[in-house]
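subagent[fold] <- orchestrator: predict structure for attached chain, return tokens only, no commentary.
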Amino acid sequence: MSLRKRAALTYRGLILTFFALVAAHTGLDLGYPWWWNFLPLALALALVFVANRWGGAPDAPGVVREPVEVAPPVTGRWTALNSPADRTPSHGTHAYGQTFAIDIVAEPEPGARPAFRLLWPLARRNSAFPAFGAPLHAVADGTVVRATDRQRDHLSRTSLPALLYLMFLEATVRDLSGARRIIGNHVVLDLGDGTYALYAHLRRGSLTVREGDRVRAGQLLARCGNSGNSTEPHLHFQLMDGPDPDTARGVPFRWRGLGVPRNNEVFEVPSAKTTVV
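subagent[fold] -> orchestrator:
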């Protein structure tokens, strides 16, 4: 087991210990001051600080490589969110190899995607979003090294109460459960030369490939969904230097013919014939 993997597991263990001690102290006389319960939390935060400073896991940027050019993973009209063209780390953390990750949502025409609402409706069905079920394609020739699609697609979190619930409760539980619960249904491709492509939040039961399969650029891999730590149906895409998001570091990318779309930039990818093997 690598040092970065051990650090990630230790971090989660310390956070779980903190919650367990707080819960125990509410009903039991443990014989020590209540503030001692925060020692595991302090150690967890210190671990993150040291990892960031010295290059370990779980939240370290590592050495930035030159951008790798690959084909876009989608076709049609989409909008970019949380783009590395605007800031890095694009999602506010280097964890899970997402330093240069990007989120994209399908908008075949202006207004086709439901807007965020302050209070109501609290959530929407996935069918209301044009990204749900959209085909996702291999960005290059590669080998499938991870593929799972058993997690459910949950309702959207496109209201303020639902978003707060996701950020402060559900996201914490998912983070403690490991990368798989954060990225949801996903597929990882080994593109060679130490580069791996991750497609996250896939639709349940939509995978068309299995681990070990060799795929060609443009081949259909799965369909866009709303599993894992997700607010609405969308694709979370990133390149990494390893197959395990728990220990991998982000690799910058460029989409051929597009570059890296900026936040809220609308872009369109012409349809191409899907590769079938």
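orchestrator: received. Logging for downstream: Residues 53-59 have pLDDT under 50 and may be disordered. The chain has two domains: 3-54, 68-269.
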